[in-house]
Amino acid sequence: MQSKVATPLLGVLIVEDNESLQETLYDTLSEEGFDPVACRTGAEALALAEQSTFAVAIVDLRLPDIDGTTLLEGLERVQPGIKSIIHTGYGSFASAKEAINRGAFAYVEKIGGGMDLMLYVHRAARAWTAAALQALEVRHTRELEDRVRRRTEELEEKNAELAVKNEDLKREIAVRKQAEEALRQSEERLRLVLDATNDGVWDWNIKTGEVHFSPHWEKSLGYAEGEVPPHVSFWEQTVHPDDMPHLQRVLQKHLDGETAYYEFENRLRMKNGT
Fold this sequence. Notes:
Elements: E1 11-15, H1 19-31, E2 35-39, H2 42-51, E3 56-60, H3 68-78, E4 83-88, H4 93-101, E5 106-109, H5 114-197, E6 202-204, E7 211-213, H6 215-220, H7 232-238, H8 244-255
Parallel strand pairs: 1-2, 1-3, 3-4, 4-5
Antiparallel strand pairs: 6-7
Helix pairs in contact: 2-3
């Protein structure tokens, strides 16, 4: 006996109105490793095809309600790709040609015996499995391509957003550099003015108490540049004690918003104590 490669659990639909032959086919297919389902009419076959998936259909050419070749087309509409085999005891060249033209996988005469039929069933099962795997591969490939396409679109969108943000950042950096350069030039002009006038300048951060004393201010009191502690407490120590009460009143009025600016002349103690 020729060896066969059975595909376990593949469904096979038997459409046969001869009860005895139907049982024989059912038992043989079960032994061959298939999952057979049997019915007598074309209407029952179409109803079963609506409910379950079949790899192969064995269809009698003459059925009580419809001829087998017409049923082939109905099964193909319900389950595209199903492999249908016409199994008939009334074989003829004309009916075989019509069956093949209507999409039959094979045309087997009943007088040929069960071995020929099983051989075609296994071939049909392998063909259906190969087609199903190919369709699955195509579907998975399309799904992967869709995921890649969506991800690519997302990345392109994010890249566009980053490009816009990058341009905004470049403009912000350019504006900041312009502001820094303008500040540097302004500070340089102020330094040149102060150097030319020999005025002593001090800048007081009221919140922190930090004070920046210009080199001319330090020099005017006899200190070297950077020798004076950068804090308001040092300035307070240099103010003449007799001037401090009046100075504090004028300063407080300014801090309270009563005057537009602070202006006061007072005496300062030199480094040598004078």
